[in-house]
Amino acid sequence: MTKKIWIPALIAVTAIGLVACNQKKTGDHAAPKPAVATVNGKTISGEAFDIWVKAQTNKKSEDVTPEQRKSLLESLENLYIAGAEAEKQKVGNDPEIAARLELERLNLFANTMFEKYVKSKPPTDADLKAEYDRQVSTLPKEEFHASHILVKEEAVALEAIAQLGKGAKFADLAKKLSIDPGSGKMGGDLNWFTADKMVPAFSEAVAKLQKGEYTKTPVKTQFGYHIIRLEDTRPVTPPAFEQVKDRLAPILQQKMVHDYIDSLRKAAKVEEITPKAAPKTEEKAATKTEAAPAAAEEKKN
């Protein structure tokens, strides 16, 4: 339940694209804002200026100072000037540039559509509770408090087990022998953990122990050889529904978006094109090279 929750964008968006999506409102379109300038007869809209200000300052255009507004408007005018010159130079004819423009256009449209879609279908408390119950059902039911002694060689582990059998204290041996820099100085104490937090061999060994028992044979993992002592167990207590309720809505929205994409894909006609194999120019060149001496020999004869 502590994992980060996010709705992935289909394609990475630019700062301006994000601002445009975040400012877009569902419902009727708002009346257009007055233009702020013209560049060689091309109008710079109030909306374009708002987006530019937000991208550069993270503020609304009405919240910047007159000096900032003047500077920001000049920089936006420069962008229009440079962009117009780039169009004259037919920069957009480059296939890569054209592809990037198309992806950004589609990404802006798609993210705006998905934002409207999830806002139109807010999850109910019943939906959130069902998602909560689903996630709780997947949580480990038990957690362990254990200590361990980690050594590099099996012989050292076997000797440590023999010393434990003779009455040596587990914590003392851990401080003396363990190569685990974190738990060794703490007498091998690993504190509380769930089985999924440890490598399988370690978790399987812990699950077989009774409280106070330690493994009588070394447990081998990629880290070395472990002697494991189970200190205690307790049931896992999930966070209360109200505590995580606000974090469940984005999970459901993510599922909604994925389901929506799946439905659109099922209705779409998608045909993937397999790239053609490149001609084997090296082999052709080699054939010509090999044939040349033979032709020369025939000419001599």
Topology:
Elements: H1 15-23, E1 37-39, E2 42-44, H2 46-57, H3 66-88, H4 95-120, H5 125-138, E3 142-151, H6 154-165, H7 170-177, E4 189-194, H8 200-207, E5 219-221, E6 224-235, H9 241-267, H10 281-300
Antiparallel strand pairs: 1-2, 3-4, 3-6, 5-6
What does the model show?
This protein is an alpha+beta fold. A hairpin with a 2-residue loop joins strand 5 and strand 6 (224-235). Among the domains are: 15-120, no CATH class; 140-235, Chitinase A, domain 3 (Roll), CATH 3.10.50.40. A four-stranded antiparallel beta sheet has the order 4-3-6-5, with helices on both faces. Strands 1-2 form a two-stranded antiparallel sheet. The protein has helices spanning 15-23, 46-57, 66-88, 95-120, 125-138, 154-165, 170-177, 200-207, 241-267, 281-300, and strands at residues 37-39, 42-44, 142-151, 189-194, 219-221, 224-235. The model is unreliable at 1-27 and 285-301 (pLDDT under 50). It contains ten helices and six strands.
